[in-house]
Amino acid sequence: MAKDFFFYTDEMTVGYDGKPLIREIKIELNRGEILTLIGPNGAGKSTILKSITRQLRLIGGTVWIDRQKMQQMPGKEIARRQAVVLTERIRPELMTCEDVVATGRYPYTGSLGILGPEDRQKVRAAMETVHALDLMDRDFNAVSDGQRQRILLARAICQEPEMIVLDEPTSFLDVKHKLEFLEILRRMVKENQVAVIMSLHELDLAQKISDQVICVKGEQIERYGTPEEIFTSDYIMSLYDMTTGRYDAAFGCVELPAPQGKPEVFVIAGGGSGVPVYRRLAREGIPFATGILYENDVDYQAARYLAAEVVSERAFEPVSTQTYEKAWNRMRTCRKVICTLDRFGTLNRGNEKLRDEAEKMGLLEAGTSLHN
Prior knowledge:
By secondary structure, the protein is of the alpha/beta class. The chain folds into 2 domains: 2-243, Rossmann fold (3-Layer(aba) Sandwich), CATH 3.40.50.300; 256-360, Rossmann fold (3-Layer(aba) Sandwich). The chain has helices at residues 45-52, 75-81, 97-102, 117-129, 145-158, 175-192, 203-209, 227-230, 233-239, 275-283, 298-306, 321-331, 349-360; strands spanning 7-16, 19-25, 28-29, 34-38, 60-65, 68-69, 82-85, 163-167, 195-199, 212-217, 220-225, 246-248, 253-255, 265-268, 288-294, 309-313, 336-339. The strands form 4 sheets. It has a 6-stranded mixed beta sheet, with helices on both faces. Strand 1 (7-16) and strand 2 (19-25) form a beta hairpin. It is elongated and about 85 Å long.
């Protein structure tokens, strides 16, 4: 069975001091694929990664790399085939960024660790890949977290591995550097056919970059599948034992609980124009109703979690008299109406009529009427 995959674990059990933490772990990974571990804090994601990189001794099972048992492979061979990027902030003394990247060549050097011209060329090429040539002479301890992570990725690239293991590689990065880091990683995986196993806390990023996802919870792998199979609203809420708010699979994000109480504001919206208003009202703790929204509208996806009431219509159908009356009856009980639409289509005349009625009643918030 192991020969069918580049990386494979056979009924692996991991833990500390001989005490099992997670049992019967089965991982199957091919070259050119990204496998991501997700799950609650303390579930054992890092333990799994440390076990497959031999930083922790396996309690049971076998790890295979390209048909070879990893337990029987010499350390130098593993270093040539597998690179590791961990969350721990290493603080080497008196080393430039180039020096740190150059350590990725040590598995290929002699006992003295002296780099030749070809090694130096590969160090430079790796730093160029991660856009870090300008950091070559900088003290590694003096650069930013984002720059440090790029240097560590360059070290892994320089190692020319067939597989890279990363533990929360984006933990210390701002949004710009998260995206840059993962784009470099994704491009390298596809172009060089490298296999990647990593853990991530950012569910939106895991959903977008992963080929396969493993969900770690309790003493077992709870679920293993594609992002489309894993990232559903109900399952993610169950995985993380969420009791407040909601995980929205459509947006790949979490939403705070909707404000409680009778709707005070009615929002006429559609086409994504309502989402910013919904979030502002929710942030201010103001319960609101919204409509008329089609069930395939992006506003509808957000409103289901943030609004006290949503008046909706089936996709591609004209607004029915019943739906319009429901929206009208709710709107007239609110103290204010906000219209986020600046034009109305053929199937959206119901919302235009609601806007006009709100203006006649003096409920329309200033600046939202087309006549102002």
